[in-house]
Structure formats: structure tokens, C-alpha cells
Amino acid sequence: MSVYRHRKPSNSNAAKALKRRAAFYDLDGTLVDLNLVHAAVFMLANVGEWSGQVSYLLGFAARIPRLYIAEQRDRRLLNTVLFEAFKGISRDRLFSLGEEYCERILVGHLFPRAVELIEANRAAGIEPVLVTGSPDFIVAPLARHLGIADFAFAANRFVFSRGRATGRLVEPVMAADEKAVWCEDYAAARDIDLADCWGYADSHYDTAFLAALGHPVAVNPDRRLHAAALSRQWPVIHFATAQSSEQSHDFDNDRDLNYDTDQSTRGSDGAA
Prior knowledge:
It is a single chain. The chain is α/β, with parallel strands linked by helices. It has a domain at 20-34 and 109-267: Rossmann fold (3-Layer(aba) Sandwich). The protein has helices at residues 11-17, 36-45, 50-62, 64-73, 75-83, 91-106, 112-123, 136-145, 177-189, 207-211, 223-232, 257-267, and strands spanning 21-25, 126-135, 153-156, 158-161, 164-169, 198-201, 215-219, 236-237. The strands form 2 sheets. A 6-stranded parallel beta sheet has the order 3-2-1-6-7-8, with helices on both faces. A two-stranded antiparallel sheet has the order 4-5. The relative contact order is 0.17. Residues 1-9, 244-251 and 253-272 have low confidence and may be disordered.
């Protein structure tokens, strides 16, 4: 299904079409109906022998109260606490598990309409870029699956010592305001004007990330992001889960997918 209606461009639109544009996508809750905790549990439950699995899972369970507090206060802290549980796991094993998780789990949980949106934007000349707090060993195989270049994603990276995870993340931790900073650096290095770019995210922690982009869109937003989007007049869209066969209410105000995504892909050339 195409959601981009081709028109004969005017001279001004043709000139703008030569400019590089990008769409920056959050991952968890935006493109897939899973979150980092699910990925962490999968990894720790499949890390090795049964005794090792139990040890890692018990360590993760002990962190649950801290994870809950962190989720309420600071997404950066959430990532830091969550990934401490991976201390001691080898780099090779983590990247192997990342490939397995992507193939067995993550791909099957992509929102179908999200994939259509990526492809529609790509057809309109808008390059896809992933900006997420998920670890790089999960994001890299997903990027390949979606046809996104290896350099076109931001993800958290582990600090390794002698081939094993230390439980620490490489600074800056990819969360909250750091996402906006990364987008600015990415765009500046490629002569892309963020005013011509789109952003998609689901959490109020991503408000600064969305605000840095010319065309922010709240996807499956939490309560606080939904309120912010309404006050700032940002589009709000809803994707049903990958398992759902019916998606009759993708967009607020009951507008259909064809119309609203057409507006999103056309808006950056001034034709909305």
C-alpha cells in the first residue's frame, strides 16, 4: 500500500526534493510492541547453561525495584540499571543472542503499519534512521532487516574488558536529551536540515528528541507525551500490535492511514 501520492513538482518543490531528509525512529513501543525489559529477560534466560541462567535471572530480579523507580524518574538511569545485569557475559555471546532475539522475536513484533510507514517515507526520499536506547547488538540485525545502513542508527553500547561486558555503558547513554544531541550531530555531518526531518516516538522521555525535529509525530504515546503532543499540535498515531488483524483506529480523530501518512511525507516540502 502506498501512502505517498506522487505529483509533478513545482520548481521550488523540485529544488527542495534535492535536499537530504531523514526520518528518525525510536524503537520500543514505536516500531515494535516490546520493550527493553523483554529483551533483557530473553538474553539472560538464554545466556548459557542452566546454572548460569538462574544466576543472571536472580540478579535481574534483584534489580526490579530499582528498575521501577528508574522508569518513573529517569530513562538514562533505567538503561544504566538494566544493563548492569549483563556484567560478565562475553561480547561474542551477546552479539549471537542479539541476532537470535531479532530473528526469533523482534521481527515478528514489528507493527505492520510502522513498516509500511518506513517504506512510504523511504519511497518519498526520506532516509530511515533508528535512534534507540536498545543495545547495538539487537539494533544492528534489526537495521539490516529493515534495510537501514549500519551507520544510520544510534544505540547503547556496552563497555567490554577482555571480551566481557563490564555492566557499564559507553557514554553518552542514548536516552532522553542525548537522542536529540545525536540527531543534531548526525544531521550536521550529512548536511541535513532537521527542520526538514521527521521524528517518531512513544514516550514522554522522548519529548526533547521529537522537539528537535521539524515534523514530530507521537506514536502510541504514553499519557504525558499524548498531552504534550496535543498542546504542541503534533500528530498522534496509534499502531495495533503485530498479532492484530484489525487496525481500524490508527490515527487520532479517526483519520485513515492513507491520508495522514500522506500528509506526513508531503509536509516537509510545504505541500501539506
